[in-house]
From TrEMBL:
Record key words, sorted: Leucine-rich repeat, Membrane, Repeat, Transmembrane, Transmembrane helix
All copies of domain Protein kinase, residue ranges: 140-417
One of the Pfam families matching this protein, by short name: LRR_8
Subcellular location field: Membrane
Family matches, as InterPro entries: Kinase-like_dom_sf, Leu-rich_rpt, LRR_dom_sf, Plant_receptor-like_S/T_kinase, Prot_kinase_dom, Ser-Thr/Tyr_kinase_cat_dom, Ser/Thr_kinase_AS
Gene3D superfamilies for this protein: Phosphorylase Kinase, domain 1 (3.30.200.20), Ribonuclease Inhibitor (3.80.10.10), Transferase(Phosphotransferase) domain 1 (1.10.510.10)
Predominant localisation class: membrane
Native species: Rehmannia glutinosa (Chinese foxglove)
Protein name: Protein kinase domain-containing protein
Length: 417
C-alpha cells in the first residue's frame, strides 16, 4: 500500500513524537482528519498541506510549531475545524481564514497578532489593535469596568476613527482561568452567522500579545447606554430607575423574538444560549433589549437536536419575565421550591399581591385594579407556561411571541404605556 492511499482518519495525538512534520504529508489526498495534537513536534509546518484536498479537520494544538500559519491551508475549502492553539506560531493572522468558512477555529496561546478574520458576523469589521483598545479604555482602568464574570471583564471604551468616535464595550478574556478559551470559542461559533436586531452585535475581535508578553483576547461589542436589565431590576434606594409594565412587556417580547430566531432562524443549525438571565440582556437608548454573552451557547443541528422550526423549546425563557414579581424571601422560596411554583400558585387571583409594588403604585391609578391584575396575571401566566417541568407541557417559543404581542395590545387598550 502506498502512502497516497492512506485515507479518512489519522490520529497520532498524545504521543511523544518529536521533530518536524515531513513535506510528504501533502501526498495524503484522501485524508479527512489529521490529529497531531499534544506531541513534541516543532519547526515550520509544511505548506504542502495544500495537497490534502479532502481535509476537514486539522488539530496541531499542544506542540512547538513556529513561523507563520501555513499559506497552504488557504486552498483547503473543505476545512471546517482548525486548532493551532498552544504553539509558537507568529506573525499576522492571515486573512484567508475568512474564506474557509470554518465552524471551529482556535488560535490561542501563540504569538500571533491582529484580529481574527472570521466569516459571518465578523465580516467587514475593522482591525482593532491592542494599542487602540488600551487607549480607548484609558489603560483598561477600573473606572471603565462595566461588568465582570468568571471568564471575562468588560470595559467601556471610546474608539477614535478620525474625527468620529464610537463607544464600545470591550470584553477581555481571563485566559488564565480554565474554561475561558472554550467560552470565547462558543461565543464566536454561536454568533458567526447570526444576525438579528435583538442580538448584541460583535464589531470585531482582537487576538494579540499584551505589553507583558502574555496572550490577549478581546471581543468588541456595541455599547448599550442603558446597561443591563439586572441593573434596572435592582433599583437604588431612591427608586428613580423604574421599568413600567409596558417596558417590561416590550423587553420580554424582544427577548422572545431573539430566542425564536436562535432556535429556528439560523439555517440548518439552532443555537441554545444556555445562560439567559437579566445580566445578559442589554438595553439601548430606546430601551430595546439585546441578548448577549454567548459563552455557554451550544450550536446544534436542527435534524439531530429534536428542535423543529417554529416548535422550539421556550425553557430558556423560564424565569425571564417573571421579574414582574416582587422580591421573594428565602422563606417563601423554600416553601414553594422555586419561582415557577410560587407564581403558578398565586395566579390568577393573587397577581396584584405578588407583583412588583412599583407597578401597583405607579400604574394602579391609571386603570381599574381588576384590569391591571388581569393584565399582570396573563403576562405572568406565559412565564409559567414556559417553565413547566416537562418539555411537552411547555408552550412553544412561537406561541410565546404571539401571546406576548396579544397582551401588549390589551395593555395598550387599557391605557398603559
Amino acid at each position: 500500500m502506498s502512502i497516497s492511499s492512506l485515507s479518512i482518519y489519522l490520529d497520532l495525538s498524545y504521543n511523544a513524537l518529536f521533530g518536524s512534520v515531513p513535506s510528504e504529508v501533502g501526498l495524503l489526498r484522501d485524508l479527512s482528519d489529521l490529529d497531531l495534537s499534544h506531541n513534541r513536534l516543532s519547526g515550520i509546518f509544511p505548506n504542502t498541506i495544500s495537497g490534502c484536498i479532502s481535509l476537514q479537520r486539522l488539530h496541531l494544538d499542544g506542540n512547538s510549531f513556529t513561523g507563520e500559519i501555513p499559506q497552504g491551508l488557504s486552498v483547503l475549502r473543505g476545512l471546517q475545524d482548525l486548532d493551532l492553539s498552544r504553539n509558537n506560531f507568529s506573525g499576522l493572522i492571515p486573512s484567508f481564514l475568512d474564506e474557509l468558512h470554518l465552524l471551529n477555529l482556535n488560535l490561542s496561546f501563540n504569538r500571533l497578532q491582529g484580529p481574527v478574520p472570521l466569516d459571518g458576523v465578523f465580516r467587514n469589521t475593522s482591525a482593532i489593535s491592542l494599542q487602540d483598545l488600551l487607549k480607548a479604555t484609558d489603560g483598561f482602568s477600573e473606572a471603565n469596568v462595566i461588568g465582570s464574570d468568571r471568564f471575562s471583564t468588560v470595559y467601556k471604551g471610546v474608539l477614535e476613527d478620525g474625527p468620529s468616535e464610537t463607544v464600545v464595550a470591550v470584553k477581555v478574556l481571563k485566559l488564565n482561568i480554565r474554561g475561558a478559551q472554550k467560552s470565547f470559542l462558543s461565543e464566536c461559533n454561536a454568533l458567526r452567522g447570526a444576525r438579528h436586531r435583538n442580538l448584541l452585535k460583535i464589531l470585531s475581535i482582537s487576538l494579540s500579545i499584551d505589553f507583558r508578553g502574555n496572550d490577549f483576547t478581546a471581543l468588541i461589542y456595541q455599547f448599550k447606554a442603558n446597561g443591563s436589565l439586572e441593573n434596572w431590576l435592582h433599583r437604588n434606594e431612591n427608586m428613580d430607575r423604574y421599568l413600567t409594565l409596558m417596558q417590561r412587556l416590550n423587553i420580554a417580547i424582544d427577548v422572545a423574538c431573539a430566542v425564536e430566531y436562535l432556535h429556528s432562524g439560523t439555517g440548518s443549525d439552532i443555537i441554545v444560549h444556555g445562560d439567559l438571565k437579566p445580566s445578559n440582556i442589554l438595553l439601548d437608548d430606546d430601551m430595546t433589549a439585546h441578548v448577549g454573552d454567548f459563552g455557554l451557547a451550544k450550536v446544534m443541528s436542527n435534524i439531530s437536536s429534536g428542535f423543529a422550526a417554529g416548535e422550539s423549546s421556550s425553557i430558556e425563557l423560564g424565569d425571564h419575565w417573571l421579574y414582574c414579581t416582587r422580591p421573594i424571601s428565602d422563606t417563601l422560596l423554600s416553601e414553594y421550591a422555586n419561582l415557577h411554583n410560587f407564581v403558578a400558585n398565586s395566579l390568577p387571583d393573587r397577581a396584584m399581591e405578588i407583583a412588583d409594588p412599583l407597578i401597583v403604585l405607579k400604574e394602579g391609578h391609571i386603570v381599574l385594579t381588576t384590569n391591571l391584575g388581569g393584565c399582570l396575571a396573563s403576562v405572568l401566566g406565559i412565564g409559567v407556561a414556559c417553565s413547566r417541568e416537562l418539555s411537552q407541557d411547555r408552550i412553544s417559543i412561537t406561541d410565546v411571541f404571539i401571546e406576548l404581542n396579544k397582551n401588549r395590545i390589551k395593555c395598550l387598550a387599557l391605557g398603559l404605556n
